[in-house]
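My current task is to audit a protein record that another person submitted. Alongside the sequence sits a line of tokens, each denoting a local backbone shape. Please read both lines and tell me whether the tokens look consistent with the sequence. Do not assume that whoever made the record got everything right. Thanks in advance; the entry in question is below.
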Amino acid sequence: LAAKLALNMGVGHFENAQLADAEAQFRLGLEQAQRGPHPEFIGEAYWQLARTALARRQVEAAAEPCQLALAWARRLGHQWLEGMACQTWTEIALARGDRDEALRSARQALALTRQIQSRRGESQAHLQLARLLQAQGDAQAALDHLWQHQALREEIERLSLPERLLRLAHYDLTRKPPEELLLELSNRNWRIESEADVVFAASEMRSAALQIMQLDTVHFWWASE
């Protein structure tokens, strides 16, 4: 339980881009898993450490734990973990400039995720292959994988819709506290490609802030053009 808790805490930190805290939790998870020993958690901890190092742009530091994760996954017959570790290894190989190894690993990840019918994993594998094949100049093959990625994303959204609607049915959106509403506003992704996009985003943020905080007015001061 201590191992799983640390791994889950690490994932939370990772998703919030708190990479140093994530690494600390994953190392704690690995230590607790090795005490068990709990082989499945050992393999997962190595994979989490690998992807955290990769997120910190520490490519060589990511390589060894990723290979250890792959070894544990194959030893245990843990196809989901092997598929995820293959996707991470694809990114490592690509960062090293080894496109052949990246392509081999991406294809292996696709095969594994298909075997266990992991839609999210398969979708990501198709996206990796699309990017790799596009870089090699194979536009048609890249487009085929991109369409499969898009179809899977749409399927995931469709299948998750009833569950999301059920949760919303029991949740009064008008009663969220201001702190939560402001956090959602701050986490919103804006598409900024022109000056007009900046003005639109600022206008939307201003309107939302006025309502959330019950203010009379909100002003922006621009640092430069």
Q: What stands out?
A: The two ends are 54 Å apart (CA to CA). The mean pLDDT is 90. Residues 139-169 form the longest helix (31 residues).
